[in-house]
Amino acid sequence: MRHPDHFLLAGVMGDPVMHSRSPKLHNYWLARYGLTGTYVPFAITKDRLAAALRALAPLGFAGCNLTIPHKQAALDLVDELDPLARRIGAVNCVVAAPDGSLAGYNHDAFGYVESIREAQPGWRADKGPIVVIGAGGGARAVLAGLLDQGAREIRLVNRTFARAKELEAEWGQPITAIEWKGRAAALAGAAMLVNTTNQGMVGQRALDLSLDALPVTALVSDIVYIPRETALLAAARKRGNPTVNGLGMLLNQARPAFHSWFGIMPEITPELRSMIEATT
Predict the structure, then answer these.
(1) Selected catalytic residue, list 71, 165, 181, 238
(2) For the CA atoms of the chain, what is the radius of gyration?
(3) Do residues 246 and 222 lie in contact, with contact meaning Cβ atoms separated by under 8 Å?
(4) What is the CATH number of the domain that holds 15?
(5) Which listed residue, of 32, 158, 234, 267, carries a Cα 20 to 30 Å from 275's Cα?
(6) What's the pLDDT score for residue 280?
(7) Is residue 152 part of a domain?
(8) Has residue 150 been placed in a domain?
(9) Longest Cα separation, the chain
(10) How many structural domains compose the chain?
(11) How many Å apart are CA 273 and CA 182, to the nearest integer?
């Protein structure tokens, strides 16, 4: 944590970056906890990422978040890589030490699990089979979180079957890759369904998935938060399934980053949630 006499600095690097909700989140917390500082967006192109990261400590920054397209590139640019970030294959938080060294972390798995617990306090990952749609970066974070929480059966469905098989081979049981044509049947007996793709996001088509075989007791989760209720969540809600959108993941993944920079684990207040919801 920085000395209280210092003007606290952190930010987010991406390309593009001005759409990021991170400045609103972190600046809210800086004000709430009486800290003097600011959190700013940096539009950084791929070719300038290494130089930008190395400039953090000399400029007095405690660190930064990373968004598209920098999460994978940062794996090779930090001096110390947290095992979970290595496992997920991406960095979304960098901590800059006073000596200029950089440590890379990924808080997306934490953010996802906390968002589920927040919405469904009685949730358990080992309650029954979990169907995960998608095999990209979002899926890797969600899978890591579910596995660490004791999931015993994960049915991984992806349009490109080979990518799902790669994750199955990399992480082993309890992950089983399932072909896209078998997506509807995979829902039978499931205790949870998670969409980790961008299908259903504003500007994207809805996820092509019939819920007929899904038990009405199954929790349906979508990491998309714009819109707050995707077509998938709307269909699940109408048939009686409990649902969780992606906003909680966004809010919760920011908490450990703020803690690592400023020494305070912030709370998600109703005021903060309403403020971010107003922008989505």
Answers:
(1) 71
(2) 19
(3) yes
(4) 3.40.50.10860
(5) 234
(6) 76
(7) yes
(8) yes
(9) 60
(10) 2
(11) 37
What's at 72, amino acid-wise?
Q
DSSP for 190-221, please give it.
Answer: -SEEEE-SSTTSTTSPPP----TTS-TTSEEE
- Give the integer Cα–Cα distance in Å for 117 and 37: 31
* Residue 187 token pair: 């829902």
| DSSP code, position 277 | H
Please say which residue of 48, 83, 106 terminates a domain: 106
Q: Are residues 243 and 139 in the same domain?
A: yes
Secondary structure element (H or E) that encloses residue 157, with its range: strand 154-157
CATH number of the CATH domain containing 194:
3.40.50.720
**Per-residue pLDDT at 4:** 60
> Domain span at residue 151?
109-247
Distance CA 130, CA 218 (A): 9
82 and 36 both lie in a single domain: yes
243 lies in the same domain as 114: yes
Which residues have CB under 8 Å from 65's CB, separation 6+?
A: 10, 11, 12, 13, 20, 22, 92, 93, 94, 254, 257
pLDDT of residue 19: 87
Q: Do 94 and 117 lie in a common domain? A: no
pTM of the model: 0.94
- Asked if 53 and 74 count as a contact pair (C-beta separation under 8 A), the reply is yes
Contact status, residue 78 vs residue 52, Cβ threshold 8 Å: no
Distance CA 23, CA 38 (A): 8
Active-site residue 71, yes or no? yes
Same domain, 99 and 209: no
142 within 8 A of 88, measured Cβ to Cβ: no
Average pLDDT for runs of 10 along the chain of length 280: 75 93 96 97 97 98 95 97 97 97 98 97 97 95 97 98 97 96 98 96 93 98 94 98 96 98 97 91
Residue 165, amino acid: K
